Amino acid sequence: SLPCDLYAAGGTPCVAAHSTTRALYSAYNGRLYQVKRASDGSTRDIGVLGAGGYADAAAQDSFCAGTSCLITVIYDQSGRGNHLTQAPPGGFSGPAEGGYDNLAEASAAPVTVGGHKAYGVFIAPGTGYRNNHTNGIATGDQPEGMYAILDGTHYNGGCCFDYGNAETSSRDTGNGHMETVYFGNIKVWGYGTGNGPWVMADLENGLFSGVNRGYNANDPSVSHRFLTAVVKGGPNHWAIRAGNAQSGGLSTYYDGPRPNVSGYHPMHKEGAIILGIGGDNSNSSAGTFYEGVMTSGYPSDATENAVQANIDAAGYAPSTLAGAPTVGSRVSLRATTACCTNDYLRHNSSDSNAAIAAISSSSSSADKAAATWIVRPGLGDASCVSFESADKPGQYLRHYDFRLRVDTLDGSALSQQDATFCPQASHNGQGISLRSANYPSDFVRHYDYGVYIAGHGGSHDWDNTTAWADDTSWVVTSPWA
Ligand code: AHR
Predict the structure, then answer these.
(1) What is the active site of this protein (predicted)?
(2) Residues 6 or more apart whose Cβ sits within 8 Å of residue 63
């Protein structure tokens, strides 16, 4: 039995079931998610390999080959139509057109599940999904349960990497108007032992780690590569549970009455569903989501334990990216387009712009140093990377007006995002490609010997589709200096 079969057997059926990696009912043989490709704007539903099976990741790979794809819809498997799509603006606006949040790049979070390739939903800051018009999700003080499988190594201290029940207006309508799983290390509201990250419940105007508004000693830091995070709540009763999604059971971090501050008993749940954002569309958090469900009714611990046993058996495992830059190392980045295979990404000597230029053993030491980078944890998302100039300490490769240059960052979140690049599978099969952390369809590209972040087709010259896959593929080499 799969998770939603088990919840149904326990009398608390799924009313939303989201996964980009597998079916969550043994009879489910439908679509899991939809991707949209940059080359022609067309969409494709990605389904399962068979009833109750794993995602057909090969269908995504062939549809998105040589271009880039975004995840546009995460379908609800419950039959209630509670699909998740690009989150609209609310109390806060997102970075995309019209104040919407960004969509996730479709191949940004590769894994294997039961030996099958699959992709998770990579939430960089600014990314979010939502459904404000749901069916069957708990409202008011009605009981519900939920779990999510997350990457316990991908998180930050922004508000708020949530999955669960939120406001239908995308605005903060007061204490008790939300009930979600939260994961990350923000300490503005609640926290537990250690430095985080923690699994908490976002109940609106508060991430709760237990009965107290701030510290609760029973909520530990947890960072399993694959993390099962559980929250459930009913009238004056709620719980937080979590465990390693690769093995073992769930531990209970809290099980008791509603918080000892006003506004959370009774609850005022509104029944929208969010992923990767706060109730008011706060969108500065990061995380990775693989699957999750919401139920009608308060699931028993026994039901959740059976779900966790199925999750263990599903066989989540990391996949490694060959040729990826190692944090702390010095590297050079070689172009792979046929014109330019002796060219390396460097900063100019005459100005701070980046360019590609031939570097060889007979190049000057100044030229070699200008083409050498120190790989740092991503300043805007630590699960990606930033490139510090080897000869200009403290200056980082960043995009500005879509062109890459080296810069002393001003410390703003925007400058840090601009200097953050996420390595993923190469578009031409050589080396890797480097995705912009804040423009998920844009990749580091050389064009007419300048270097940009570029989409596969778009309004700038450098978005030209000719040779895009080659121009966005880079081999990480040993450093010139
Ligand atoms: O409860 C924490 C956050 O506070 C909510 O997600 C958001 O709506 C508000 O800013």
Answers:
(1) 204 (nucleophile), 280 (proton donor)
(2) 35, 37, 44, 69
**Residue 65 CB contacts under 8 Å (≥ 6 apart), including other chains:** none
Q: DSSP secondary-structure letter at 450?
A: E
| Ligand 1 touching residue 101 (CB < 6 A) | no
The residues, any chain, with a CB within 8 Å of residue 339's CB and separated by 6 or more, are none
Cα separation of 178 and 146, whole Å?
13
C-alpha 120 to ligand 1 mean position (Å): 24
Copy the structure tokens of residue 326: 């190692």
- Beta strands in 325-394, from DSSP E residues, in sequence order: 330-335, 343-347, 354-358, 373-377, 385-389
**Ligand 1 pocket, residue 280 CB under 6 Å:** yes
> Which residue is closest in CA terms to ligand 1's atom 4?
205
Structure ipTM over 0.85, yes or no: no
What are the tens digits of pLDDT across the range 325-364? Answer: 999 999 999 999 999 999 999 999 999 999 999 999 999 9
Q: What is the 3-state secondary structure (H, E, C) of 276-335?
A: CCCCCCCCCCCEEEEEEEEECCCCCHHHHHHHHHHHHHHCEEECCCCCCCCCCCEEEEEE
C-beta 205 within 6 A of ligand 1: yes
- Cα-to-centroid distance, 259 and ligand 1 (Å): 16
DSSP letter at 105? Answer: B
Asked whether 481 and 391 are in contact (CB, 8 A), the reply is yes
Hey, what are 366's tokens?
């100044």
**Coil, helix or strand at residue 255:** strand
Q: In degrees, to the nearest 5, what angle opens at C-alpha 205 toward C-alphas 203 and 206? A: 60
Q: Who contacts 431 (Cβ-Cβ below 8 Å, separation ≥6)?
A: 323, 334, 336, 473, 474, 475, 476
| pLDDT tens profile 58-72 | 999 999 999 999 999
Q: How far apart are CA 205 and CA 214, in angstroms?
A: 12
What span, in angstroms and rounded, lies between the C-alpha atoms of 186 and 153? 15
